[in-house]
Design a protein that fits this description.
The complex is a heterotrimer of chains A (332), B (324) and C (294). Chain A is an alpha/beta fold and 332 residues long. In chain A, 30% of the residues lie in helices and 22% in strands. Chain A has a domain of 228 residues: P-loop containing nucleotide triphosphate hydrolases (Rossmann fold). In chain A, helix 4 runs parallel beside helix 6. Classes of the chains: A alpha/beta (332), B alpha/beta (324), C mainly alpha (294).
Chain lengths: 332, 324, 294
């Protein structure tokens, strides 16, 4: 079955060139250089229709940037993105429009993700009217229906965001995403800012909506428990690269990459008492200056000398892959 | 039974807002022994952070501590005048906040801030204070501490900054540390490092720790005892294993069932229905009743604390009943 | 949680009326504005209608009766104009000039500021350098230079004021817009594939307005003061439509010679107007600020 969305060698490099003042300073002997940050470094993965792909990793791993590229909010600096089998560069305007509307995003901060000066009805219904999915006079009913689906009382659509709690605002954000009849929703830490009991409510909502509408999710989170709960497949990222990918239950029960193992070992769990925290040595490296070879090698408990030189590729079979020289047997 | 380092009884903190009087902390009582970690768990609005501030006496108008005792090593902190309290803060009790920039001044170097703290509480020379600061940084696992001392906070990563704050807290070897969500904003691997350091240091020095958080999983791994707060009251308190494996209060049970994990894959979670009530608009009687699957007419009166085993207290009319 | 629709405007008015000084200033300002708008009805005399004034009534002190029994409540000037009426008409010119100038300056500043923030790059650089250069000169100096080039007249004065003041707004709007653009609701609007102009004017603009409103209130006072200075120096409004500044200038020579009222009362009127505007503006800023950090 063709993937709904497929990424091939996607990169995102942010370049910060010296500005006018800095270039002038350079003439006088200063040393302002161009800074390149490889937020995403050659990621290839597919999302199938109706599947939940979890994307986990720590700060600086590039998962949020990847999510934004998938949703079309940022343009990759290299690589191909294909939606429904057609690469971005080769899309007709109609296909491009379809991609823009059918891939939507839900954001982390329920307070900043809604325009404080617009009423809920406008927030949820604006895009549908602008893109011609509904007529302006049908907007009210359309929004009422959507609000019902996310568990909000429709008569609240005349209110402003500040009158709602965090969990309710997140539901409004979900309704807004639903308004364009998406087929893929990128959830960028969508539950991280909510209270525990509200997180559970919203997670249930995601599952219910998926059961009803059959869309796919790219579920980006640092919360391994949430990803383990909701995802079909999971990809683990470290410093811009995918280090492991596979079916969620397999990755979580039998991790193949040392980083995944460390993450799973160190993440606190309810059933783990008197945890013996074993620190991973070192800090997360700055993406400005990634280590050579395997980016994880300075902190890896089983690093070998070759790991400093060779960049491991994602290898494996049956959709289960890891980027580690030990796993592929290149290193004993 | 060892004498507790901190003994809180009937603490009540109120705020007079334009919308009315808010009781953020309502009759909270607990003990913390030397070397013990007490996890204080609750969601937003539960009063856990205000409890921490109240212990230190850091409540400003329009808030005030209305009632209760806060006894640190036999001394009632509420009866102390402000100058005496100030001498204790940083020295006998230290507080660690979620955002290290709440502790660190962005325009001062690390060494200036740490040395200033030491000199405020210890009669030592400046050179000795500098050495103490460097030792403290080394003990929390910061590499090249002498160089790091000369840095400004913004030159360090978030995890490093938090470690500096913890070093500052531990430097003067306090009897009690109150930590308010210190690792919530940090990555798993960094959190792990910090928790490791803290575990070592607390074990070495027998420091008591109150760990305030909304994250039950961290508390599971770190704490000896857990207190669960809701709407300003402690609804359940007890040893960590007992409380997490056999929760007696419906709210605790609801929280536990709200946590997603691999074991619950594909199943619907059983979240607590409804939302946290506004503190201005609490129902009479048990604050949790409107959301409780087991509420009945009895819940119209405020439940008293009931003992449910050694060191285990629950505030519920239906404590321990199995939910059908 | 209130069941009524809580609009930002309702919240704002609710907060505004909590300060007695602000309310007093607001009422004062409203009265001044009404007097200025309905000058014809409020003023005892139209001081620029030559048939209504008589030089025989010149330089009468406040409270005197003229030859026709006309009561000069605040005295008369050299030509026999009633000072009270002259002040009311003068207020009208001052307020008209400043409101119009500030309104246009806001519009220009909004458009350029939003553009600079949205496009970034060289567009931003260019606009901001122009703003920087302009703001490094004192406003009065720039206005004088412009009027020297443009000539005299009320419309020229308004134009000069617009050209002097747009820069403040552009800079403020750009700063506020840069902050808002980072917020997720703007990213959401992009993800929803809304057209750029819609995001700029439908989403960004309403959210950068609070600081603009605050500055605009203070800039009205500023504009009145600049215009008064220009008129005082003789390059502002023409004598046939004197503003408060010109009135003050007219009476300046007589200030210490006993006929103080010709300058004094217009000066008081100017002072009261500026104070009211500043108090209201201050209060508006205080109310809107905590909202901004929310």
């Amino acid at each position: 079955m063709t993937a709904l969305l497929s990424l091939d060698g996607i990169c995102q490099t942010y370049v910060s060139s010296p500005d006018l003042a800095e270039r002038a300073a350079n003439l006088l002997g200063a040393n302002y250089r161009e800074m390149r940050v490889r937020a995403v470094d050659g990621v290839s993965l597919d999302i199938g229709p109706g599947e939940v792909l979890g994307l986990v990793g720590e700060s600086g791993c590039g998962k949020s940037t990847l999510g934004r590229m998938v949703a079309g909010v940022e343009t990759p600096s290299a690589g191909t993105l294909a939606y429904q089998g057609v690469a971005l560069a080769a899309m007709t305007p109609a296909q491009r429009r379809a991609w823009q509307l059918q891939v939507q995003m839900i954001f982390q901060d329920p307070f900043a993700s809604l325009n404080p000066r617009k009423r809920i009805e406008a927030i949820v219904g604006e895009a549908a009217v602008v893109h011609g999915l509904i007529r302006p006079r049908d907007r009210r009913d359309y929004v009422a229906d959507l609000m019902g689906k996310v568990g909000l009382a429709p008569d609240m659509m005349t209110r402003y965001p500040h009158q709602f709690s965090g969990g309710q605002r997140q539901r409004v954000g979900i309704a807004r995403a639903l308004a364009l009849k998406p087929r893929l929703i990128v959830c960028d830490e969508a539950i991280s800012a909510l209270d525990v009991s509200i997180q559970a409510q919203v997670l249930n909502l995601f599952e219910d909506l998926r059961a009803e509408f059959g869309f796919a999710y790219l579920f980006i989170s640092h919360d391994l428990g949430a990803v383990a709960h909701i995802a079909d497949r999971v990809a683990v990222m470290y410093l811009g690269r995918v280090v492991e990918i596979g079916a969620a239950d397999q990755v979580f029960s039998d991790p193949r990459h040392p980083y995944t193992r460390v993450l799973l070992d160190e993440a606190p769990r309810l059933d783990r008492r008197a945890q013996d925290f074993t620190p991973v040595k070192g800090e997360i490296p700055s993406p400005l200056n990634p280590p050579p070879g395997c980016t994880f090698h300075p902190r890896c408990p089983v690093a070998a000398p070759a790991c400093r030189e060779i960049v491991p590729r994602l290898t494996g079979a049956g959709g289960r892959m890891a980027a580690c020289l030990r796993e592929t047997g290149e290193v004993a | 039974m060892t004498v507790p380092v901190l003994s809180v009884r009937g603490l009540r903190t109120e705020f007079d807002t334009r919308a009315g009087r808010l009781t953020a902390v309502d009759g909270v009582s607990f003990d913390v022994g030397p070397g013990e970690v007490l996890g204080l768990v609750g969601e937003s609005g539960s009063g856990k952070t205000i409890t921490g501030f109240s212990i230190l006496g850091l409540i400003d108008p329009p808030g005030r501590i209305a009632a209760g005792e806060v006894v640190l090593n036999g001394q009632d902190l509420r009866k102390l005048p402000e100058p005496a309290l100030r001498r204790l803060r940083g020295d006998r009790i230290a507080m660690i906040f979620q955002d290290p920039m709440m502790t660190l001044n962005p325009v001062l170097r690390i060494d200036t801030q740490l040395i200033e703290t030491i000199l405020a509480h210890r009669d030592v020379s400046r050179e000795r204070a500098r050495d103490m600061a460097a030792e403290a940084l080394a003990q929390v696992g910061i590499p090249s501490p002498a160089e790091r001392l000369r840095a400004y906070p913004h030159e360090l990563s978030g995890g490093m900054r938090q470690r500096v704050v913890i070093a500052a807290a531990l430097m003067l070897e306090p009897d009690l540390i109150i930590a308010d969500e210190p690792t919530t904003a940090l990555d798993v691997t960094i959190q792990s490092q910090i928790l490791y350091e803290m575990q070592q240091l607390m074990a070495e020095r027998n420091t008591a720790l109150i760990w305030i958080t909304h994250d039950l999983t961290v508390v599971a791994g770190l704490a000896h005892r857990v207190a669960v707060m809701y709407a300003g009251r402690i609804v359940e308190i007890g040893p960590v294993d007992d409380l997490l494996d056999r929760p007696a209060h419906p709210y605790t049970r609801g929280l536990i069932h709200s946590i997603p994990s691999a074991t619950a894959r594909g199943q619907r979670l059983e979240p607590i229905r409804g939302m946290t009530p506004s503190l201005l608009n609490l129902p009479p009687g048990c604050a949790f009743a409107p959301r409780c699957p087991r509420a009945d007419a009895a819940c119209g009166t405020r439940p008293e604390e009931r003992a449910m085993g050694p060191a285990r207290l629950v505030r519920c009319h239906h404590a321990g009943e199995v939910i059908a | 949680m209130s069941m009524s629709v809580d609009t930002p405007l309702r919240r704002f008015t609710g907060d505004f009326v909590k300060s007695p000084t602000a309310v007093a200033a607001g009422i004062g300002l409203t009265l001044i504005a009404l007097a200025a708008i309905f000058a014809g009805a409020v003023a005892p005399q139209n001081p620029y209608d030559l048939r209504q004034i008589t030089i025989l009534d010149g330089s009468l002190p406040p409270g005197s009766e003229g030859f026709d029994g006309f009561h000069y409540a605040l005295g008369s000037d050299i030509q026999g104009r009633d000072m009270l009426s002259a002040m009311i008409y003068g207020l009208r010119i001052s307020l008209f000039v400043s409101f119009v100038a500030v309104s246009f300056a806001v519009m220009v500043g909004l458009v350029l500021g939003l553009l600079a923030a949205w496009r970034g790059g060289w567009v931003d650089g260019l606009i901001m350098r122009v703003v920087d250069i302009q703001l490094s000169f004192p406003a009065l100096l720039v206005a004088l230079l412009l009027l020297a080039a443009l000539g005299k007249g009320v419309d020229k004065v308004i134009l000069a004021l617009i050209l002097v003041q747009w820069a403040y707004f552009a800079r403020t709007v750009r700063g506020a817009a840069l902050v808002e653009i980072r917020k997720d609701y703007v990213t959401a609007a992009r993800s929803l594939a809304l057209p750029g102009w819609r995001i700029l004017f439908g989403h960004l603009l309403p959210n950068v307005l609070p600081p603009v409103i605050v500055i605009a209130t203070v800039q009205v006072a500023n504009a009145i003061a600049i215009e008064a200075s220009l008129s005082f120096l003789g390059v502002g409004v023409p004598i046939t439509e004197p503003s408060l500044g010109l009135l003050i200038a007219n009476g300046f020579d007589y200030l210490l010679s006993g006929r103080y009222w010709i300058s004094f009362y217009p000066g008081v009127a100017l002072l009261v107007t500026l104070v009211c505007i500043n108090v209201v503006g201050d209060h508006v800023r205080d109310i809107l600020n905590p909202r901004l950090s929310r």
